[in-house]
Fold this protein.
Amino acid sequence: MKNRVLEMLQSAEGYISGEAISGKLGISRNAVWKHINKLRSEGYGIESVTNRGYRLNSSPDIISAEKIQENMNTEFIGRKIVYMEETDSTNNAAKAAADMPDGTLFISEIQTSGKGRLGRAWESPKGIGIWMSLLLKPEILPQDVAQITLVVGMAAAKGIGCGAKIKWPNDVVIGTKKVCGILTEMSAEIERVNYVVTGIGINVNTEAFDGELSEKATSLYIETGKKCERCGIIRAFLENFEALYKKFLRGGIAALAEDYRELCITIGKEVSVIYPNRTINGKAVDINNEGELIVETETGTVTVGSGEVSIRGIYGYV
Amino acid sequence: MKNRVLEMLQSAEGYISGEAISGKLGISRNAVWKHINKLRSEGYGIESVTNRGYRLNSSPDIISAEKIQENMNTEFIGRKIVYMEETDSTNNAAKAAADMPDGTLFISEIQTSGKGRLGRAWESPKGIGIWMSLLLKPEILPQDVAQITLVVGMAAAKGIGCGAKIKWPNDVVIGTKKVCGILTEMSAEIERVNYVVTGIGINVNTEAFDGELSEKATSLYIETGKKCERCGIIRAFLENFEALYKKFLRGGIAALAEDYRELCITIGKEVSVIYPNRTINGKAVDINNEGELIVETETGTVTVGSGEVSIRGIYGYV
């Protein structure tokens, strides 16, 4: 019934009286008033003026499968969408439903225990971010799954826009702060991938970050001063991802290397590669066909497949 | 009640009458007779003689956690055992319970859809084989999980005995036929393994294999002419595995290489490495520290990380 009240507000030109709504829907004026209040609590801006009635001034930024898929130009990525009001983590939801089709998107308004890499937590508050996971079924070897994370990072940077760049391998930053994190997991045999789940968290309309986080994290709202519509960003990500992913499946990272170099802020910079037991300093010069970072040090060239890489001399996340 | 009938048979010296059982357990003679028949259908050899009663002559080869752990000398491998009468696949059961402790063993009398590598089926009939999976939580990188499969193969060959050897990487053969197959799966992030599940299938008391399979598969019974007690083999596997696995976690494959070379029939042989789109012929000369097979060909040395490797000139599985 609440949705029918909303529909009447949406289709009204200007004001519509409480009487008109109650008459049309066969409910009491008091019930109309309760539904209006519920809608307001969900973020709808509804004005009420004595003797004129109600008017819908603004709608909250709501995520729905329909809205994401509106005019979406993909073949299999995001053609199936599992939307959840709340879940522990969209990666967990995707892993639990791994029999769904290649390219299925899992998205939730809230993650109650969103995950970052290596067991770290990822804050996922309601209404202001994009917390989603893609289920993929590539016919590649487990050791090549790391390459997919580069493709996801590229698609996220392109989908986000606003000058977003990639910090190798796949964190997305604006300036020196992180706007998007990616956590890729897989289920695999030794010679075969069962499935890959790649989780993407994008800070969209966050107004501010607290304490230490404010030095490392940013949002599209903080960077642009404008509230963004999340479904548009999701759609842009899915479209970009499918185009890049198809190229990758045909030609590997080599087919995307030029694009990646342009988006990657790490290449060309002095970096520190931090391993559990030592740190390597050098200059990142390129990525190779496996997506590994090539670092030139005083004692020779090192290929970095994983590990924390920080860009020296820049304050912030990168 | 059936188990109490069994207990009375087990504790009787010689024959025990149906009246004695029915009196002691407070059930009818007809009920005793039904339980006896049920026990016979489960493989118990129960003799019945008029005027003397029942006598237990033989017990079936039953698997139980208690029997496996009897005098077992391990610290964490197989200290927790999940026994199932029937499951689809013990690997699936382990993956679904991946929050259980490192070293938990999942074992089932029957697998209704046992899995081999690359989606192949694995026959897992009741009572005559060992169908089990180990849950492991090593702190290693996903690309190093393949090395664990070598350790599992070594432990299986040692646990099975009877001259069992390894066909690289981890099939266990007696002569030219396969007696044990291993399917290792993992859940992982790019830089971290969540867990590894390694499934081990051993043909123990199979009396014969049908058709084509008879040329490729064997069982301990076929090789030795004797029925084997499965719990002893499982225990020997677990003990061998823990010792080898601890060495591996400390020193990698290098720490086990000498042992592996002795067990591996592939090394020193002319082999064909079969890839989806080509075949490489050469001589397998060793394994390296990543557990990969080193093959010398006419045009140079090749390192083989995965793929089907067959030993040339030998008929059968290998």
Q: What stands out?
A: The longest helix of chain A spans residues 230-251. The CA atoms of residues 19 and 149 of chain A lie 55 Å apart. Chain A has a mean pLDDT of 93.
